Amino acid sequence: MRRGRWRTLGGALVRVILVWAVSTLTMLALAGILPDFRLRAGDGDSVTEIGLTAAWGAGAFGLLSALVWPVLVRALLLVPALVLGLLVFFLNGSLLLLALSLIPSGRGEVAPETAVVVAAVMSAVASATSTALAVRDDEAYRRRLHRLADRRRRRTRHKGAPGPGEAAPGLVFLQLDGVGYETLRRAAGSGLMPTVAGLLDGSHRLTAWRTDWSSQTGASQLGILHGSTFDVPAFRWYEKDTGEVVVCNRPTSAAELQRRAIARTGDGGLLTLDGASRGNLFSGGADQLALVLSVSARRGRANRSRAGYFAYFCDPANAVRTALSFVAEVAREIGQSLRARLRGERPRVARGGLYPLIRAFATVVERDVVVAAVIGDMLAGRAAIYADLVAYDEVAHHSGPHGRDTDRVLARLDRSLALLARVAEHVPREYRIVLLSDHGQSPGETFLGRYGLTLKDLVRAGCGLPVSRRAGRTPSGAEARAAVLAALHRPVEEGARAHPGRGPDPVVLASGNLGLISFPDLPGRASRERIERAHPALLATLANHPGIGFLLVDGEVLGPGGRVARLDEPGAAEELLARFGPGAARAVRRTDAFPHVADVMVNSAYEPGTGAVHAFEEQIGSHGGLGGEQGRPFLMWPTELSEPEPDLVGAEAVHEVLRRWLREADGPQVPLAPPADGVEGAAGAHGAAGVSVEPAGRPVEEPRPGGGKSGSLPSAGVPARDEIR
């Protein structure tokens, strides 16, 4: 054992020396290339003296990066994450200036602007060298993973805790946001996603499931994580009783939706026992949170949602590598957008402004941070991990769900899956990886692009209200935009009025190819007769428009040519909605029973032959309503778990399947006690932290597997490796 320990120490020392040597050579090369960077006191310095100066500078820079960088990052905990990203190069350059100032005889000298370049190159080279050495030595990588896991176990060890090999298998749920069933099959079959293809050929099985009418992340993820999609009619909707617009990717709205779901189910969520929630809209009851929107409105150090950024960026190599990848992704988006314009590709939407930065945030920053957090959770041995990777969904909205742009994103997601699968082979606990999606994406030209006006313009014209001569654009609301705003400490969705105000003007909102129309001056839910009295031409104008498939108005479905089907008449709605696929009438009927359903629900036209819909937002790949691939996400599970029921319908059904798999792995999950009158807020507040609520509203810590307590495990985050790029 002593010989093996010395061998391990010797191998680590050799790797440190090799990284130091490469860093020294890099510094020498940069000193020869850059005019404002020198490593000599005068012209009389020998080659040996210059080499020793470079070695001293490289060693000092490496030591400062290891010791000082984490302290700097922790000191900047309250700085918005994107601002920290912009500070990466400045901070790294400052460390280099400090390192050069420590060289004897003042031999090191560099201009501040050049120091930024030198520090970035040296960090990237050192990271690449270290990673290459670890990749070449699988045993060294395995030992490193076990070392990190042992360190975490020692910090969290308590009496009665299970030792290595004693814990039941854990579950990792990876959500590939927006990747539909058919899209995944095509990508695996064409070789675009070899990791997924390999899993399907051996250890995993794949099936499709159907969403409810609201085929979007807010409804689906709330149902998957918290077991309820009740009263979530769309991505955004107007509530007459409060006069507020609820938006699923607004942090305050997400927190309220989570509270309502917990109050309805009496359960903290899928991840209540020893769980981690990464990159999601909702917590799922997890105690370990990173990049979770429902808690991101909290300010101060208590907000653990943003802690994932700092756990990742505390390594300067991670920070530089991700920053460089971020810049490359911005350039890639600008190039792809320019190519689409030059080729005259149709359909097409505007991709300028801040969109290149938002895309790079979703496809690089969020991906790297979430993957690193999941690796940390696996090293810590957490029982249940749920993570959302939003990259494909964000790019598909603007580039379309099928094409070269999204193919590249799918390939990079597959590399992330490959990395996590390799890590799973080295962690101390066995993990079963489940892949799933929350919805798909349907292609098609936007409603504005096809017909020259927005849904809001059409509604105002049907109501006899003035319409702007210049067609306005409906902002695209996606999960990545909300994540960026949360990272910037701007919790309110841009362009969305939280309180439109009461008056004669209708409130018109869009959720992909689903539109919602509410009349604030008509109390309660307006019937067809009341709407026709107030606005005689509106419903006919909408129902007969070629870009609209059908309307829902207080228990009635209105189609083209004056067709009307009551939902309580057997078969009538099924016949009118047949072109929208099986289960369409059931989905509409369920939404009709929601307390906050809009006065008029509008679903765009759908062409079954092409699968095309017309989004009421600026999206050529959309989801939110009925029609095409958007309503057919996938579920992919290892064969050790029981088969899900055939023909899964709704996110609530998926929640039950995932709960069953957790029980199979580690026994039953303990739900929250039903809240007593007047303590719904307590249930909502404590459910997100994995605790139950007594009738008096006092939180009670629930036991973790092995005798642990809620909150006994620290936040984890380790550097993601280069394979994720």
UniProtKB/TrEMBL annotation:
<dbReference type="InterPro" id="IPR017850">
    <property type="entry name" value="Alkaline_phosphatase_core_sf"/>
</dbReference>
<dbReference type="Pfam" id="PF01663">
    <property type="entry name" value="Phosphodiest"/>
</dbReference>
<dbReference type="InterPro" id="IPR007165">
    <property type="entry name" value="Phage_holin_4_2"/>
</dbReference>
<feature type="transmembrane region" description="Helical">
    <location>
        <begin position="12"/>
        <end position="34"/>
    </location>
</feature>
<dbReference type="InterPro" id="IPR002591">
    <property type="entry name" value="Phosphodiest/P_Trfase"/>
</dbReference>
<protein>
    <recommendedName>
        <fullName>Alkaline phosphatase family protein</fullName>
    </recommendedName>
</protein>
<feature type="transmembrane region" description="Helical">
    <location>
        <begin position="79"/>
        <end position="103"/>
    </location>
</feature>
<keyword id="KW-1133">Transmembrane helix</keyword>
<feature type="region of interest" description="Disordered">
    <location>
        <begin position="669"/>
        <end position="725"/>
    </location>
</feature>
<keyword id="KW-0472">Membrane</keyword>
<feature type="compositionally biased region" description="Low complexity">
    <location>
        <begin position="676"/>
        <end position="698"/>
    </location>
</feature>
<dbReference type="Pfam" id="PF04020">
    <property type="entry name" value="Phage_holin_4_2"/>
</dbReference>
<keyword id="KW-0812">Transmembrane</keyword>
<feature type="transmembrane region" description="Helical">
    <location>
        <begin position="54"/>
        <end position="72"/>
    </location>
</feature>
